[in-house]
Amino acid sequence: MQGARAWRCRGLLLPRTAPGLAASRRGSSSRDKDRSVTVSSSVPMPAGGKGSRTNCSKSTPQKVPNRLISEKSPYLLQHAYNPVDWYPWGQEAFDKARKENKPIFLSVGYSTCHWCHMMEEESFQNEEIGRLLSEDFVSVKVDREERPDVDKVYMTFVQATSSGGGWPMSVWLTPNLQPFVGGTYFPPEDGLTRVGFRTVLMRIREQWKQNKSTLLENSQRVTAALLARSEISMGDRQLPPSAATTNSRCFQQLDEGYDEEYGGFAEAPKFPTPVILSFLFSYWLSHRLTQDGSRAQQMALHTLKMMANGGIRDHVGQGFHRYSTDRQWHVPHFEKMLYDQAQLTVAYSQAFQISGDEFYSEVAKGILQYVARNLSHRSGGFYSAEDADSPPERGMRPKEGAFYVWTVKEVQQLLPEPVLGATEPLTSGQLLMKHYGLTEAGNISPSQDPKGELQGQNVLTVRYSLELTAARFGLEVEALRTLLNSGLEKLFQARKHRPKPHLDSKMLAAWNGLMVSGFAVTGAVLGQERLINYAINGAKFLKRHMFDVASGRLMRTCYAGSGGTVEHSNPPCWGFLEDYAFVVRGLLDLYEASQESAWLEWALRLQDTQDRLFWDSQGGGYFCSEAELGAGLPLRLKDDQDGAEPSANSMSAHNLLRLHGFTGHEDWMDKCVCLLTAFSERMRRVPVALPEMVRALSAQQQTLKQIVICGDPEAKDTKALLQCVHSIYIPNKVLILADGDPSSFLSRQLPFLSTLRRLEDQATAYVCENQACSMPITKPCELRKLLHQ
Questions:
Q1: Distance CA 39, CA 171 (A)
Q2: Helix residue ranges, H only, 444-499
Q3: What is the DSSP letter of 122?
Q4: Which end of the chain is more exposed for a tag (fewer CB within 10 A), N or C?
């Protein structure tokens, strides 16, 4: 799911401070020793980094379920029939480890993770390996999406003691939860270039018996080093770094890694990086008269266009896959994640605001169409993901991409009708295949498919512009567009009859918050109430099913039950920092889109709860987890990287600035400054690791615009001024509707609103900065001109 996922084909990771275990490895061949960490580094990455896979059905009727059968997590339930004495993360497992003096084997993954499926099938279904895990270890299974705190702590250990990380994550802990050995995916048996899981278990078992005191000492030493290394604090610093310098350095680092031809910022695998695109748009806005500013805009727009034309986008059913296995955005890892859809729809909406090119708005609408159709609970919530793998036909074992790829024969049979008016004999199928690059032999390189599973198959990817394809066959552009859309619709209808990929129907507060933002922002930009209503229903779902009124706390998860019901784990899984930060962001965006102040009021209350539960009053910034919830974990971290999702501290910095703009409360501005100061060193050294926080730093050191519209919310002239604001890319602003009621929530927060009047009983706009407001404006064209200055 994160960038680390590209490294998931890893073996045993041994801290340099574990000599006993290191010695035990000397019996293996030199090739095993040399390749034990990066066992697949020279193997071409296939689609999704995978080889073959056996049937992923997890419930065999004749087997007896283990205690995971009582869990709600789809990932844990996938392991409920393993011959392993699995425990969920919790006190029962820890007490058993201490009472029996056994090491803990911690296995962390998620339900749509291919290599998690592989290890489950190869190792956790193996009776002998199951006995080893049950007799010599206390085996604990964790869904990383349910417990991001557990995942972050032990992934920090894995990455610190190796060259990478990924999922499934395999870590061995002392009974006091301190890690001493870590790895990711292990094959069941020893191979030419890697140590097998059975061997690893036996070696650790022997070392625990013979050298336990050394292991414990080394574990304490490594934990202490990680604690020092991971500390993020203001220290002696009083202020954050210069935004101008940090911005420039971040842009230069991105410019150096930019792919001129295909867009994006790596060779392969290549990930969509909405936080980087968001930074580039902001950089363009503040440098738009400079060469670097133009360059930043071009980098972001080109990347978005190449992604949308590539196979990483599902041209038949819409939405985006997780990442591309190649530089060209052609062959994806086919998993679809909610957080990608949420962030990318905002990125494409912003691209439309900036460029005016409807290509980008159409992509944004397509993403939301996919989410509404495939990832939406009928009560308004949003599911987490769809798997990459599915059976090509019922009863067959799942293969990656089977649901999404096509043969030439299939397309020809579905689209046999002739194209009228073409300059040569042509069927609709031939036209579609030419435009989307389908070939008889398949368009997937053997280097991306070493097992031959995708032989003869094609991933749709736009090879030519509409204009070029139309000219090639003597067609009008609009006629071609209609023909292609009709063809894609027929493929979509045919695809409905294929076995569907597994749906992870878990609902996470954080990702639902991101999706509320996606619908709200896109609906506001495009002026589509229907999309804003999806955001409203999403927020209502969060308040109804994922919020505890008595304590004011968010819950992390809920689950789709039978008959459209919503279920919760017992006891509930309480929210983490990212849940609060992302939901607050969604509510602020929803207020600006809907102008319903109830969402803003709830955002303020959640921010107060976030401050109470997670704020570090000594060092500044927010911890990722509550102190009580993470009790027993060796580290309490502050996430310091904007990756597949923005870090919760980066998001919180923006939220605090916006809340200050909505309320005038200085406490939130003070917190924002403290947060940015705490992360100063990280931003100064590697700003490209925190582009979303660098963007917040710039916003904090610039002047936030308070755009106030005085008018009747239902009046046409009010709506025209609001839509004018929504149509313009202005990231550093708050949009406030003043309806003239002095007792309203916002009037109580910002007394100056009562001094702003409608001009001649018309809806009137004011742009306020530094406690001074512009002259009143009643015409959208004049407001647009002022906002573009």
A1: 17
A2: 466-473, 477-495
A3: I
A4: C
State how far Cα 560 lies from the chain centre: 21
Superfamily for domain range 703-788: Glutaredoxin (3.40.30.10)
| Predicted local distance difference test score (pLDDT) of residue 194 | 85
CATH homologous superfamily of 67-230: Glutaredoxin (3.40.30.10)
Residues 444-447: contacts with CB under 8 Å, at least 24 apart = 444/47, 444/331, 444/405, 445/326, 445/331, 447/44
Give per-residue pLDDT as tens, 506-533: 999 999 999 999 999 999 999 999 999 9
Dihedral over alpha carbons 633, 637, 642, 643 (to 10 degrees): -20
Q: 């990478």: which residue's tokens?
A: 164
What's the pLDDT at 28?
Answer: 31
Is the per-residue pLDDT at 20 higher than 90?
A: no
Report the candidate in 732, 682, 681, 689 with the shortest Cα–Cα distance to residue 707. Answer: 732
pLDDT of residue 17: 35
Helix axes 577-594, 509-526, angle to 10 degrees: 20
- Distance between the two ends of the chain, CA-based, in angstroms? 40
pLDDT at 44 over 90: no
Query: Which of 311, 328, 341 is CA-nearest to residue 264?
Result: 328
Query: Residues 654-673: what's their mean pLDDT?
Result: 97
Give the whole-number percent of the chain exceeding pLDDT 70: 92
Residue 772 pairs in a beta bridge with 769
Instruction: Say yes or no to pLDDT of 125 above 80.
Output: yes
DSSP-H helix ranges across 257-380: 274-286, 291-309, 338-355, 358-374
Q: Domain map of the chain by residue range?
A: 67-230, 258-504, 703-788
Topology match between the domains 67-230 and 703-788? yes
Tokens of 73: 């997590």
Residue 179 reports pLDDT greater than 80: yes
> Mean pLDDT of all residues in the chain?
91
Cβ partners under 8 Å of residue 261, min gap 6: none
Report the distance separating Cα 766 and Cα 754, nearest Å: 13
Q: What are the C-alpha distances in Å from 75 to residues 72, 142, 146, 158, 671?
A: 9, 8, 10, 21, 37
pTM of the model: 0.91
Length of the chain: 789
- C-alpha distances (whole Å) from 775 to each of 730, 746, 750, 751 are 20, 21, 19, 18
pLDDT (0 to 100) of residue 62? 66
CA distances from residue 412 to 331, 417, 419, 621, 747 in whole angstroms, order as listed: 22, 9, 13, 58, 63
Q: Are strands 138-143 and 87-88 parallel, antiparallel or unpaired?
A: parallel
Check residue 737 and give its pLDDT.
96
CB–CB of 744/660 below 8 Å? no
